[in-house]
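We both want to read discrete structure tokens more fluently, so let's practise on a single case. Once you have written the record down, we can walk along the chain together.
***
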Amino acid sequence: MLSNALLPEIADLAIPKPGGEMAYRCLTCQAFHPITELLYTCPECNGVLLLEDRQFDRLKKTPPEHWQAIFSLRKTLTRPALRGIYTYHEFIGPVIPLEAVVYLGEGHTPIVEASPALQKESGMRFFYKNDGQNPSASFKDRGMASAMSYINHLLREGIIDEVLAVCASTGDTSASAALYASYLYPLVKCAVLLPQGKVTPQQLGQPLGAGAQVFEIPGVFDDCMKVVEALAAQYNVALLNSKNAWRILGQESYSYEIAQDFDWDVANLAVFVPIGNAGNITAVMSGFIKFFETGIIRSLPKIIGVQSHHADPVYRYYLEPDENRRHFEPVTVSPSVAQAAMIGNPVSMPRVIHLAGRYNEMAGKKSVFVVQVTEQQIMDSMLCVNRRGHIACTQGGECHAGMLAALKQGIVTDADVAVLDATAHALKFSGFQEMYYTDSFDADYGVVPKKELVNFPRLVRPGDLEKVPAPGRPLSGKEFTDFVEKTGRDIAKALSLSKKGL
């Protein structure tokens, strides 16, 4: 909560000015590289990069309570550049002038407490963070706002000219990339690669509607990613997958918002995120670490990554308790309803290993976990939570199933408060709900509908009606009166309603 007593002390910091010294750091050879060009891997050893502010320690000079007040104050301002993820400008993109920030309404998605009935059924208190309420209806907009703001900054400075932005996608990344690129058209154009037949019609419609060039190729996401990586290595294109370290920076805002929404007390929180390309869990860990280092939060919450048994390379990696004996192996994925997480060789795996080790060390105990769930559990969870007042996508169902698994394994207890990531809007995945209701899943999914979760519309057409209304052929008079009375009668009977006064 903003204290009026602090207003005079933070007034000069309310509107941030460009600062810091951002650089790419290779996680393999530790070399630093300038940000004057778009890099995705280390030029020296081809290792994975993270963006670091080499002047980060300057942020520690501002008292934690001042940072808290600054962020609270910015949420009351009307300046568009500070209304989204750049509320946390100094922690995300301090070198980017506010004039270059691309804001389309992303960030500050609601955290909604689960209904009492659902919490009782689930066995613990928890909240959903509804990231499907971002502009393109997924969490990807956080990272895309960051990546596109930096590209816009380079364009404005004349460091680069026209840009072709490319990405591989299971659906949400392409929708977000196409949306943000279209905002900067004609200086930025977009092309996306999708695995043929592996993207929902709703997700496919988004990049098409935004004017992107869409290419479908055989295989799965990992195959698309290899093609995009080859394009980025050989041609002048801007890669917008989470291999782009600017994407990770933007997604850190997820952690910052959770901390702020829980009034900076995260001691008993357990944050559940689905793992696909591993960019999201990377960003969540990195964000909490930064706030912890500056004292904005005084402890680190548990972080639990969730994977389907059809795409579980990170889960398998951490099955080995001895970190010195762990060895990462990509897996061949099987069909998954959690399409955004159907990735067998996540590009951010080196980041996960690096940050999870650092996170656990700073927490003083194991605080990063990975659990595995089945496709059946994902679908059942999605349908159950949406029957109790929520709008969870399949990834949101995956997180709920992961919470139940973690509770059963003792990773969390009823003393913890869970925050589940609903990464996209449920309507993007409505086709899977229909497949569940009609029992039309391919055998590869291993999903069998539970009768109590299946729901269908029922046609009401009373047999004793001579005429019914139709488009362009309305009823009137006694015919319409009969239609209303007899249709209402049959509905009341189906609902076992009692008449008033009886």
User: Anything to note?
Assistant: The chain has a mean pLDDT of 95. The CA atoms of residues 164 and 236 lie 8 Å apart. The domain at 139-251 is CATH 3.40.50.1100 (Rossmann fold).
